[in-house]
Write a structure and sequence with these properties.
This protein is an alpha+beta fold. It is about 70% helix and about 10% strand. A 5-stranded mixed sheet has the order 1-2-3-5-4, covered by helices on one side. The longest helix has about 60 residues. The protein starts with a helix and ends with a strand.
Amino acid sequence: MLATLRQAARASAHLALAAVVAFLSYIFITVLLITAVCVVAVIGIWMLPETVLIIRRIAGAKRALTTRWTGRPIPEAYRPVKGPLPDRIKIAVRDPGTGKDLLWMVAQYAYGWLTLLMIPLWPAGLVVDGVWCGLLRRRALVLPLITKLADLEANWSTTLLRPSPEALLEARVEEPTTTRADAVAAHGAELRRIERDLHDGAQARLVALSMRIGLAQRAYEADPERARKLLDDALGQAEEALSELRHVVRGIHPPILTDRGLVGAVRALAGSSGLTVDVRADGLDEDGVRPPAAVEAAAYFVVAEALTNVAKHSGADHAEVGLTRTRRGLRVEIRDAGKGGADDQAGSGLTGMRRRVAALDGMIAVDSPPGGPTTVTADLPCVW
């Protein structure tokens, strides 16, 4: 009986929020009427794209609410409303998502009132199920109807709010453009980093080395001791320049990946991270087959950046890294029990990870609720 009450209370909370969204939709019909009149009168045609954006926000709130109940995300596929007013109007009118949202809003005027049926179900359920379930030890009859009502409302909303195949196809076609732009940006940033490292590090040391050798040549005949000291200094600078060059090469493609493979490189990375890291590898060392070098480098970068974020921001001293060979590629998962709240808009390394993974047509997901835990999952496609 207690479990039934908890489930009914959860369903009632969902239905109550759904009723709030429905009430907002009922109120919004006034805005729709005003917009229609203004568009017909031409003087208020500028209101059309703004009204469409408001409808998108209401539909987005409904998608989030339905996803929270069902656990199945409802994708969005909208054309961005931007540019001059004529372009904004054209996009708002021609976007297939506008018609779908309007259809959902009209349909909600009909099925939104169903959420109120939970009100009479509660007193009836407490009486009937209290006797039937609490005293007679039978399965509850009335209170589960509240859960079914919530499922029915969520299923209708999912069907109405799911983008049309045309909109999903259009979004899929536009995705490579964004991915390509991110890849170009990531490549440009990487080239600038390599150039900066070479200019500020190895090049400066090699110039100093050349000067030392030149001074040693001049002082060799007159002051051999000073020349010997200059050559010793030049030897030290040569070693430092080599160290700088190794650092630059390691940033391009870590040599440890070539020597030890991805699993060995990640284990070495975990050992030097300052954290207690458990590394789990499934299916990578079975037949000696390795993913392509680009996939290995991206996976290594994701693990390195994620462990750096854990050490700097999470407050955790333990992390778990999983490397899994899947049928379509490689899955990398990093999990920590820190304070959570990771945000890729706050300047962390998550943006760089997204770009690096997107350049390989991969996907990355960050689950980091306040209070933790934080899980970073990257799926990198490749052929084994």
